[in-house]
Write a structure and sequence with these properties.
Blueprint lengths: L4 E9 L2 H11 L5 E3 L2 E5 L6 E6 H9 L13 E6 L3 H13 L6 E5 L5 E6 L4 E7 L6
Parallel strand pairs: 1-4, 5-8
Antiparallel strand pairs: 1-5, 2-3, 3-4, 6-7, 7-8
Length: 136
């Protein structure tokens, strides 16, 4: 497994408006909006930082607006970047062989990122990722 960098970090929020007030207005981060998702790319020290509504995380992981009760609700997500979609798939297989359970295996998101996700013991949503724009 060859993790190249942290592709991104996002807090996951049940209250997007309150989080927007903190991160955008109070802290003054230069966040852009894409629907309710706030983000900044190529922010010094990180490739990506975001404020991700829990409903959007649920939609991405499970195809529903509600986070399923059988999974602990995440409070953040961190994504580790790989060199290709194939490397992501290999990492998934390697971790599965070690007993890791996945929320979902590698899939391509509508925005073009290939990602597989699982939960850490701390309830952090961990992504194994390939985002082509980070390799340009």
């Amino acid at each position: 497994m060859n993790i190249q960098s942290i592709a991104g970090f996002a807090t996951i929020t049940k209250d997007p408006k309150a989080s927007a007030l903190l991160y955008k207005d109070t802290l003054g981060l230069p966040l852009e909006a894409q629907e309710e998702y706030l983000f900044v790319d190529r922010f010094p020290g990180s490739n990506h930082f975001g404020v991700w509504p829990l409903s959007m995380a649920a939609k991405s992981c499970f195809g529903t607006d509600e986070w399923p009760k059988e999974f602990p609700e995440p409070t953040s997500t961190i994504e580790f970047e790989f060199g290709s979609p194939e490397e992501v798939a290999l990492a998934v297989e390697e971790l599965k062989s070690k007993g890791q359970l996945f929320v979902h295996e590698a899939k391509e998101e509508p925005w073009g990122q290939t990602v597989a996700r699982f939960m850490s013991p701390e309830h952090v949503l961990i992504g194994l990722s390939y985002a082509a724009w980070l390799h340009e």
